[in-house]
């Protein structure tokens, strides 16, 4: 039996169900194999594909492969698509979530490694490409920019991460709730979200994961945009305020 449901019950999901939030923009080539891998995983997963204004058959392929598909009327970017997914998770009562790429780079068999720290007190877990598992490589200029971001985040968040821009992450209920309301929607949202969670007082951890090459389609990042966005995100990070931790449990009982 498939672990990926074609429809999700509203506000009455079983406590063990895990929502997989998958932003997708023109991913018709990679999506079938990505969803097949999640169906084969021995975990209670409900997959939600957020179709970010695609002009191809992403939405119909997602639905045909058993996923819930939330269609945005135009392209918001990955941050806006993820916030839509986080809101859906909260509205439907999910307690744990996974951020997962549609392009086949993430390995469903490693989702368990992201969930385990949540069972031991973590609020958010980052799957790192550079923490000892696999041999993921980046170019020299991008590697330099990543090193600068690592340094900046260590200074601003008071914590060291080897992979600040990984899109393979897990979330507990309080982080799901915060991101449903406040997830950054600008380019390089993953970096800002990491700092936001740390500065809000959440227990954010990192685990080693293996990343694959994309299985189809074209990557959305373009090299000529990176320099501008790295500068922008550094300025944004420097101005990210410390916030108080949001607790869904406290809100429910208040």
Write the layout of secondary structure elements.
Blueprint: E1 18-24, H1 31-40, E2 45-52, H2 58-64, E3 68-72, H3 78-91, E4 97-99, H4 111-115, E5 124-128, H5 140-157, E6 169-171, H6 173-182, H7 189-199, E7 204-208, H8 223-238, H9 248-253
The total tally of domains equals: 1
The fold-level CATH name is Spore Coat Polysaccharide Biosynthesis Protein SpsA, Chain A
How many alpha or pi helices?
Answer: 9
Q: Walk across the major sheet and give the strand order.
A: 3-2-1-4-6-5-7
- Can you tell me the CATH class? Alpha Beta
CATH H-tier superfamily? Spore Coat Polysaccharide Biosynthesis Protein SpsA, Chain A
Q: What structural class do helix, strand and pairing data support?
A: alpha/beta
Largest sheet: 7 strands, mixed
Give the structure's gist in a few sentences:
With 254 residues, the protein is of the alpha/beta class. It contains nine helices and seven strands.
Overview of the structural elements:
This protein has helices at residues 31-40, 58-64, 78-91, 111-115, 140-157, 173-182, 189-199, 223-238, 248-253; strands at 18-24, 45-52, 68-72, 97-99, 124-128, 169-171, 204-208. The N and C termini lie far apart (40 Å). 38% of the residues lie in helices and 14% in strands. Helix 3 (78-91) crosses helix 6 (173-182) and helix 5 (140-157) runs parallel beside helix 7. Residues 1-9 have low confidence and may be disordered. A seven-stranded mixed beta sheet has the order 3-2-1-4-6-5-7, with helices on both faces. It is built from nine helices and seven strands, in the order βαβαβαβαβαβααβαα. The protein has one domain: Spore Coat Polysaccharide Biosynthesis Protein SpsA, Chain A. The protein has 254 residues and is α/β, with parallel strands linked by helices.
